[in-house]
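User: I've been trying to design a sequence by hand for this structure and keep getting stuck. Would you show me what you'd pick, starting by listing the structure so we're on the same page?

Assistant: Good idea, let's start from the same input. This is the structure you sent:
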């Protein structure tokens, strides 16, 4: 009886101490593992965002590079030593070649200040792809049958509709518009316009630009499966949905969705860059989700790349590691307790013999 009391007095405190030690260790390791898993999840999400941004940048650089090369070519045309007899027709051929060389471009255009191109506006009054003053303002387009059409630009002096021209003219720098819809042969298409100024003697004398489809970037964004069951979408500088799996959201402002509650943070991202993570309900996934929004510059504009992942997926790796550590900890506690019990029991069994001998 006395041996049992001694055994209890020794084993119970040891088991309690072991339990507390293992519990502290398991809790610490579980927290560290959870944080590590969360960090890895965040890195994977950001990797997809960076990959999408790279694809978008490649598209803009491809089109922008082609358009950026044109001002010097057009300035040669306005030079008095230019060898072509009909510089305006030659300019149209250059725009047509730009159009045909890039499958994403659906229209190429140029808009010149009065008499700035060749000083011959009076010879082209009301002529095709000119205005009533003879100003050189052609737009070359490609229809679905791959036929080239030519017409005069419209709304180029309108401060809103003419952004494609007025912004590059006013800033003297390349400009990319907000996404916009245009009716192309009865079908609405989402476009962007990239434009560059033509500068002569420090003065903007014209602007050259290209309108291009967003089909490729939409396909790229929709091709990402973030952490297997998430998705990416894009918000423009103005805060409009440029891509999204739910096409009903395209060209709607983010403030009309649950993201509106984070308008202050999102506006800060647009203006200064950075990233945020928020939680909300996704109609596309029909689940509560974690949304990571990262501000990145594309074509001189600040775009918001957004990754949406179900909360269950975001937390899955952390929960798995946490339960794994807890199970391992409990197994360790059981094994150590059994070993301790065995050692103490054996020692106490020999205690009467040792006492008698003494």
């Amino acid at each position: 009886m006395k041996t049992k009391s001694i055994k209890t007095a020794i084993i119970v405190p040891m088991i309690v101490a072991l339990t507390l030690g293992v519990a502290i260790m398991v809790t610490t390791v579980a927290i560290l593992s959870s944080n590590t898993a969360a960090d890895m999840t965040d890195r994977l999400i950001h990797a997809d965002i960076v990959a999408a941004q790279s694809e978008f940048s490649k598209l803009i650089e491809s089109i922008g590079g082609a358009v950026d090369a044109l001002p010097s070519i057009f300035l040669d045309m306005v030079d008095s030593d230019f060898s072509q007899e009909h510089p305006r027709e030659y300019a149209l051929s250059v725009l047509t070649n730009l159009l045909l060389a890039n499958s994403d471009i659906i229209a190429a255009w140029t808009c010149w200040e009065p008499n700035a191109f060749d000083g011959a506006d009076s010879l082209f009054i009301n002529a095709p792809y000119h205005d009533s003053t003879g100003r050189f303002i052609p737009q070359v387009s490609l229809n679905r049958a791959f036929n080239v059409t030519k017409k005069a630009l419209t709304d180029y002096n309108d401060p809103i509709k003419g952004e494609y021209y007025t912004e590059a003219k006013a800033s003297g720098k390349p400009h990319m518009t907000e996404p916009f819809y245009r009716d192309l042969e009865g079908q609405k298409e989402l476009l962007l316009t990239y434009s560059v100024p033509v500068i002569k003697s420090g003065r903007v004398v014209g602007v050259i630009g290209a309108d291009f489809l967003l089909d490729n970037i939409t396909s790229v964004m929709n091709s990402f499966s973030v952490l297997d069951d998430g998705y990416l979408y894009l918000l423009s500088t103005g805060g409009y949905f440029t891509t999204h799996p739910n096409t009903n959201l395209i060209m709607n402002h983010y403030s009309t969705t649950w993201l509106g509650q984070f308008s202050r943070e999102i506006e800060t991202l647009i203006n200064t860059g950075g990233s945020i993570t928020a939680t909300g309900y996704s109609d596309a996934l029909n689940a509560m989700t974690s949304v990571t929004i990262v501000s990145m510059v594309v074509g001189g504009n600040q775009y918001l790349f957004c990754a949406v992942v179900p909360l269950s997926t975001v937390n899955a790796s952390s929960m798995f590691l946490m339960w794994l550590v807890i199970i391992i900890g409990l197994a360790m506690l059981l094994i150590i307790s059994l070993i301790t019990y065995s050692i103490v029991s054996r020692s106490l069994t020999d205690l009467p013999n040792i006492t008698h001998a003494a």
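That's my pick for every position. To get oriented when you compare it with your attempt: Residues 354-358 have pLDDT under 50 and may be disordered. The CA atoms of residues 113 and 205 lie 5 Å apart.
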